Amino acid sequence: MERLKKYDDWSLLSRWGVFVVTASLLWSAWFWWRPPAPMLSLRAINHLPESEMQVALTFDDSPHPLTTPLLLAALKRADVKATFFVVGDGLRHYPELARRIVADGHALANHSQHHHNLTTIPPQRYADEVFSCFRAIHGLGERQPWRDTRLFRPPGGGLDRAAMQYLHANDVTLAWWSNNVGDWAPMKSWQIIYHIRHSLRPGDIILLHDAGTSTPQAIPAIVREARERGLEFVTLY
Question: Which is the catalytic residue, given 64, 106, 111, 209?
């Protein structure tokens, strides 16, 4: 029995050893493939200063011919400005919507030219994916404070070491978020509102999407909730 017990102890230790070694290798591989932005000196913004009692509404994937007008109408009724992370192809196909976003006083930032995850394309295509959209934005922002924005939000949050090194070398700032509502998937407006009521904090950069009708419907309640907490809405650039 004593020999059997020693065997069980060694078997347990060996299994733990295998687990620890495997986990260490996986984490090492992950950090090599996608290290944290500060390790590569890559500028990133994912939160506003909490002490300033500010929040930012941001929308990915604009412009969209069906949902952008609804979103703009909701924001106008709520008297709030937001930051639209636009797709260059959308600006090309729907220039009138891009002009409406700007005319309503909202800021533009970069969400790529073709909405390709940077981890799925070769480095030779990074320049087109990132800077074609920047050029389109800069052409729309005469006399706007965000005209020369360097903010880039990668589609799907997709980044690896090669993409991060490219962004750093080209003076691009990653625009992350601190409050991801998850409205990229089908959600009811009450679900979006419920999420905000239970998660909103000073300094939040709120990630929403220009897709579907639930998000525009939720805007008035989101804005009311934030203002009741004494929070001010700001744009990013």
Answer: 209
* Confidence class for position 22, pLDDT limits 50, 70, 90: low
8 Å CB contact between 118 and 161: no
Distance in angstroms (rounded) separating the CA atoms of residues 7 and 22: 22
Nearest one of 183, 194, 189, 187 to 225, comparing CA atoms:
194
Residue 116: which of 149, 88, 136 has the closest Cα?
88
Give the three-state DSSP class for 84: strand
pLDDT average, residue stretch 65-78 = 98
Non-local CB neighbours of 185 within 8 Å, separated by 6+ positions: none
Alpha helices (runs of H) in the chain, residue ranges in sequence order:
2-33, 68-78, 88-93, 95-103, 126-140, 161-169, 189-199, 214-228
* Known catalytic membership, residue 168: no
58 with 83: CB under 8 angstroms?
Answer: yes
> What is the sign of the dihedral through the CA atoms of 108, 158, 94 and 77?
negative
User: What letter represents residue 190's amino acid?
Assistant: W
Q: How high does pLDDT run on average in the chain?
A: 89
d(CA 109, CA 236): 8
Q: What is the pLDDT of residue 30?
A: 47
> Which among 60, 61, 183, 210 is annotated as catalytic?
60
The tens digit of pLDDT for each residue in 58-71 reads: 999 999 999 999 99
- The answer to whether 195 is a known catalytic residue is no
Contact 192, 222 (CB under 8 A): yes
Nearest CA to 136 out of 96, 87, 179 is that of 87
